Amino acid sequence: MNSSVEHKETGREEVIHIRGLHKSFEELTILRGIDLSLYRGENLVVLGRSGTGKSVLIKCIAGLITPDAGTVEVLGKNVPDLGPDELNVLRRQVGFSFQMSALYDSMTIRENLEFPLKRNLKIHDTKVLDEKVMSALADVGLERTANQFPAELSGGQKKRIGIARTLILQPEIMLYDEPTSGLDPITSEEINELMVEVQRKYGTSSIIITHDITCAKTTADRVIFLHEGEVGYDGPFESLYTTKNPLLSTFMQYFNLKEHERAR
Fold first, then answer.
1. What are the residue boundaries of the structural domains of the chain, listed by start?
2. Which helix (H) or strand (E) element contains residue 119?
3. Which of 191, 219, 210 minimizes the C-alpha distance to 251?
4. Are 35 and 19 in contact, with CB atoms under 8 Å apart?
5. Burial of 249 (C-beta count, 10 Å sphere; 0-12/13-18/19+)
6. 10-residue averages of pLDDT along the chain (264 residues)
7. pTM for this entry
C-alpha cells in the first residue's frame, strides 16, 4: 500500500514527514522544532552525541512517545492523532529494531520470530511459520540458531536476530536505534553491511539512529546531525569532511583519528 506523499519542492516521495517537532520531559527540553523528511528507498542516518535527542525522535516516529507539538506523518498518517488500533496497523508497516534487541529470553529464536507472525498476522500454520522463520534467519545468516535461546548467542547475533524479527513482517520502513552500540568493530561492520543489504533486497526506507560515524559512512544515503535537539546539518556524508560547523568538525577529527589508528 502506497500511503506516502510527494514532496512539493524535490518531487521525491516522502514516507516520513516531520515538521516543528518539540518534546520536553518536565523542565528538560529534548527536541526543539525538528524538521525531517525520509524519502522512499533511502537510508537516512541521524547522527549525534549521546543525549542529543536521537532516540526520543525515533520513539516519536514509532508512536512510543507523544510529542508536545509538531507533525509526525508516517506513510501519510499523523502518528499523534492515531488511536491504539490505527497505531497497531501502522506499526506493521514500520519495523523498529531496538538498541538491546528486545528478544524474549524464555523463547527459542524460532519462537521469538514466530511471535509477531502469530500476533500481528494471525498465522498459525506450522509449515508457513517454518518457511517464514527460516527465510528471515537466512537473510541475517543465522539459520542454525533456530532452536537456541537468546542467552546462547553473542551480542552481534542478538542484533541480527532482532533485525530478522523486524523484517519478518516485511515492513516498508525500518527504524534502527543504535544498531552497533556495544559491539566490537568487526561485528559492527557486519551489522552495517546487513542494513545496506536489507535496503538493497527489500527496498526499505530506513532511519538509522547512531553516534557511530563508521556506521554513518557505511550505510547513509543522507545524514542529519542533531545537536541539543536541533538539526545542525542535513546532507551527504562526504560533505561532513568540509563542513564549517565546529561541532561537526570535532566529530570528524575524532573519526579520522580512529581511522588512522585502525590503519596502523
1. 95-170
2. helix 109-120
3. 210
4. yes
5. middle
6. 46 92 93 96 90 90 94 95 92 83 90 92 94 94 93 91 91 92 89 93 94 90 91 88 72 55 45
7. 0.86
